[in-house]
């Protein structure tokens, strides 16, 4: 099947339209005021019904937690799992809601402050995570609720790690701290009970194999490498439970379309290991894959997966884990292998309880690290897919500039649609990798903005236009942002754009020793902005990217989140480079390329650590009109000219069929 069909990748144009029974239009006040991404949803009735359920004797809770994630810990979720969006009206991809009897709190990060303010009604209080004095939702539950509060949770949606952290939390500064709150697992999700018949059904789209000429490695080889990776655990485990959808898709060389823009499918997996005290006597791992029956033809998948992988119904996972736990407890302990089951640190409390907490060990998913380092086939796929993507980008921006010069009236949505059309004509195209951020003027300051097809702003020549977009190809995933001005930019716009460019160049040209993390080098992207007192952009500088998988992939990244400091950058990883600046109510600027982490040769190799740098695979010119040449150094000017020249050399031969795009590319790639 293909992902470009709108019924799969844009089933509802955006998940927002599935969240309300009465759709109302966004409003745009003037060209210089903040644009509403969606009309505020009234939540009074929904909250009242939720609080009634909270009071019922069978629940009897003082607070209820509604996270963003689904039962697999997914960042991007199916419409049937958008519970937090439904109860609050805020449909950003990150956030956690806490509802008490007299408050409704929304915790989210800086990417979504503006969006949350616009989308939530007066019932809600925005908790701006990351700002001084604002607690995390976990800390709020620990320190801000009355003594002995009962906190309702869905055990399939809260992680085992969060559950343990909240259960064992204590105010270390107060020896006589109040009695801790009690977490109350409620098996029937209270939001689902209210949403009821209006809740969309769970997708059951086909699961298809990804051929080895695209994945670069067989399932058998991946299972062997996984066994090797977990063998260092002490004691050696009997099994590993997999819950993250992209981990499972990668391990078994399968793809699906159950979640828009993410080629994944609802599934669980359990990998069984057969370690021996004598390594040469260890046998191959085998696995059980849990899939929705309506989404597969087992005979076809069996021929691809082989005899070492069993396929079972998706809904059988908890019974299987319970039986596994019972079996291990009653079995004898074999030499070199203990009665231990590994579960990922993002696995749910329900998964941990099904196995039994006495025999589990919570660890970072070993698949995440294996998946993050791409093999040679995957890396070449990234290069080739970005070349093709560069063709679509050149055709789109050339088309857009010509239309604006002709006086055409084009909305942000129409621009996004035209870009998707150009991409859909490319070989190996399977769909978009996320909803295109096509934003003009003040909408560019909304970091994860998405235009409403029924009512959105008109792209104007005298405003900055920010376009963040990407595609899924069989051989790679793309993610690129460019900022353009089709008229005459102001001095302020040029200065801020130049500072963003300088931060981008600093990351692209970085060389650093092995062991360096993205947390350490993140500030290099912000230094130029800091020179002008422009503060911080409210997002990370870069994230990992999956290979024909999720556009956001860990464990590494460039950013201020301390978790990035636990994952050093390694050769073969993919990471984006996307500093930005956002003038609320005026404009936004972001420049984003996709980079491959690579080994580099330096004149010296102090400490024999080896050094790393980046290879840029994104091929789209950076507009020189937005550059203040008085600010940039000779080296920075050389970098910009070299980059645009490289784009011309690689993309122009692929544009011989489109004279308009070729002329535009030649113009934009001229040196300064």
TrEMBL record:
Protein name from the UniProt record: Xaa-Pro aminopeptidase P
InterPro entries: Creatin/AminoP/Spt16_N, Creatinase/aminopeptidase-like, Creatinase_N, Pept_M24, Pept_M24B, Peptidase_M24_C, X-Pro_aminopeptidase_P
Any GO CC annotation of this UniProt entry: cytoplasm
Family (UniProt): Belongs to the peptidase M24B family.
Cofactor(s) the protein needs: Mn(2+)
The Creatinase N-terminal domain, residue ranges: 46-170
GO MF annotations in UniProt: metal ion binding; metalloaminopeptidase activity
Signal peptide extent: none
Keyword set includes Metal-binding: yes
Start and end residues of each Peptidase M24 domain: 381-599
UniProtKB keywords: Aminopeptidase, Hydrolase, Manganese, Metal-binding, Protease
Transmembrane segments: none
Domain named Peptidase M24 C-terminal: residues: 610-672
